[in-house]
Amino acid sequence: MNNTIETELSLADEIDEVIRKCEIAAESATSSVEIRAMLSEAEALSPQIEAEAERLRREVLEAVKSREELALAKIAAENAELDAARVDRAKVRLTEALATRFSEEAEAQRQAAYDAAHDERNAVARRYMNEAPALIAQLVSLADAVMLSNAHVDAVNADLPEGAERLQRVEGFCGAFHDAETYETAGQLSAFRLTQMVLPDLKGGVAWPPVQSFDLGIRRLGKLFPQIAINLLWRKRHG
């Protein structure tokens, strides 16, 4: 009997301590990891509580006792069942707290990802504004050189020296694009491919600094009317 009482007291103390820690975790745990650890501890104790409650129920039903001993056994069994219910309730509170913490952590992760994307966007935008003008100017200059060279190639191909082979246009010679020799405006189309690669999606006060306003309008128009725009640019620059 003394061993039974000592076991009941020891288990009761452990239950009280676990419930106390569960309450603290549910109210003030700073992460889902802490709550899950406490929930695991409570779940590990549950089988022991259930086993003790079952043992006490059998003791009430099966043992031959005096009325006084029977009353004490019934109280012990009822207390064990109450302890099991208390631990179950603590686990429910922890589960609810865990769901709330998961939601908060997910929101924090979304906010962190948003902030990182925001900062990255700003950094890349600053880099773009610092570096793009010079790069765009180089590409525009290269596109102009390609168109001019292709015009010269077309001119000499139209009146080749005796025994000379036809010259390929710049992109065809480099193998960068198909040469499209059969098209009258192939040189213009090749240059247009290059200029399209450098068209930035900029608006208002941050519009393309390296080019004059007429060229800027032509290149923006080129997004909607590519061949018309490149023809106008070609005629403006090469008469």
Could you explain the architecture of this structure?
The protein contains 7 helices and no strands. By secondary structure, it is an all-alpha fold. The chain has 2 domains: 2-117, Methane Monooxygenase Hydroxylase, Chain G, domain 1 (Up-down Bundle); 132-238, no CATH class. Helix 1 (2-28) packs parallel to helix 3 and helix 6 runs antiparallel to helix 7. The radius of gyration is 41 Å and the shape is rod-shaped. The protein starts with a helix and ends with a helix. The model is unreliable at 179-184, 198-214 and 216-229 (pLDDT under 50).
CATH architecture of the largest domain: Up-down Bundle
Name the structural class.
mainly alpha
What's the CATH topology label of the largest domain?
A: Methane Monooxygenase Hydroxylase, Chain G, domain 1
Gyration radius, to the nearest Å? Answer: 41 Å
Q: Spans of 5+ residues with little confidence (pLDDT < 50)?
A: 179-184, 198-214, 216-229
Strand content: under 5%
Number of strands: 0
Run of helices and strands: HHHHHHH
The tally of helices reads 7
The 3D shape can be described as: rod-shaped
Give a quick account of the main beta sheet: strands, pairing sense, barrel closure. none
Mean pLDDT, as a whole number?
Answer: 74
The residue fraction in helices comes out at over 70%
Number of domains: 2
CATH class membership of the largest domain: Mainly Alpha
Whole-Å distance between the termini?
114 Å
